[in-house]
Amino acid sequence: MKHSDSIKELALALHKAQTKIKAAVKDSTNPHFRSKYADLSSVVEAVKVHLNDAGIVFLQGVSGVENGVAVETRLLHVSGEWIASTLEIPASKHDAQGYGSAITYGRRYGLQAMCGVPAEDDDGNAATASAPHPLTPKRAITPNGGAGEDLDAEQRKMVDKTVEEIVKALDEGRDFDAYGLCESFTDEMLAEKLYCWSKLDSKQRRRLKTQAEKAKQPKAA
């Protein structure tokens, strides 16, 4: 994460904003899996007013990287202080739709990560202890369980690249960035997410699960 020489005023303003920011509501539906998710507009709606009231605006720039895009999310305070973080998202397809989706995912997860915004569960309540973990694959994976068998060579290459970025972020102690990369595989990309999960060791999975639990913790009123 990059920042200006001083972030004293920004830190105070961000604290003020985060005491009011709530979860982004899952109000968009994935018709294929019959599941709901918080889209970019829901995340923006959850944070924009409270950031602006605290004297903060957010800017998101996009640049191209190998096989995908890099989205920089910057929080800029009226004092001129700022913090910024960049999230690289592989494109699932190398066409306008694939890159457009990657940009949307990068903007959504980048803004969530910078503001500490969890997405509400489908029913608006936190998951119970007995509910499946948000990062747990929906079917068991064994060494010969066939993870990735439904993916073509280009899709596996894209996931392998994401796994490299996840491992790099974990090695550098950027666990929340790693979590954001893992969550870039949406409900429409279950096969990719299963394959990604199968490429990580147990220690890496535990660290990602820890970040998922932190993301679900309610903010102070």
Count of the domains: 1
Shape verdict = globular
Q: Please bin the fraction of helical residues.
A: 40-55%
* Overall mean confidence score, pLDDT: 77
- Discrete helix count: 7
Unreliable stretches covering 5 or more consecutive residues: 28-35, 120-134, 136-145
Question: Which class of secondary structure composition applies to the elements?
Answer: alpha+beta
| Quantity of strands, as a count | 6
Strand order of the largest sheet: 1-6-5-4
The separation of the N and C termini measures 27 Å
In terms of topology, how is this protein built?
Elements: E1 2-3, H1 8-18, E2 28-30, E3 35-37, H2 40-53, E4 56-65, E5 68-77, E6 82-90, H3 96-115, H4 153-171, H5 175-182, H6 190-198, H7 202-216
Provide an overview of this structure.
The protein has 221 residues and is of the alpha+beta class. It has 7 helices and 6 strands. It has a 4-stranded antiparallel sheet with strand order 1-6-5-4. The protein has a two-stranded antiparallel ribbon with strand order 2-3. A hairpin with a 4-residue loop joins strand 5 and strand 6. The chain starts with a strand and ends in a 5-residue tail after the last helix. Mean pLDDT is 77; it is low at 28-35, 120-134 and 136-145.
